[in-house]
Amino acid sequence: MMEESEKESIRAASKEVACQFKTLIDANDLDSLKHLQHIILGRLQDSNAVLSHFNEYSEHCFAEVSSDFSRNTRLLKSMKSDLDYIFQKLRSMKVKIMATYPDAFPDELSREEFDQRPDLEVPQ
């Protein structure tokens, strides 16, 4: 029972506050706010439509290029493993040549004078 009477008093207080609040706001101002809200709602709906269209377009574009991207990624990984194997063989060949012909490769100081190419094995 107390809950019902408590709810009734809350409702009555709410109605009173609403009535008092209505007297504080001019009807023209309220109409102006409604109009502005409708304008903003229209703009937000337009923006939402544009973004939805863009998302569909992006999804379509991604579907077109994803297989090429995956294939090229696999190709690059394969090329990297091939190059790693080639550089490993070159290093082992260099070690064998150095063992047989110690003067075949110049030391670091004279090598820098002759060879100005960048070292491809060092990350930049």
From TrEMBL:
| Entry-linked Pfam families | KxDL
Record field: transmembrane: none
BP-aspect Gene Ontology terms: lysosome localization
Gene Ontology cellular component list: BORC complex
InterPro entries, sorted: KXD1-like, KxDL_dom
Q: Where is the KxDL domain?
A: 21-105
Superkingdom of origin: Eukaryota
Protein family according to the UniProt entry: Belongs to the KXD1 family.
What is the designated name of this protein?
Answer: KxDL motif-containing protein 1 isoform X1
Per the UniProt record, the source organism is Herrania umbratica
Q: Gene encoding it?
A: LOC110427053
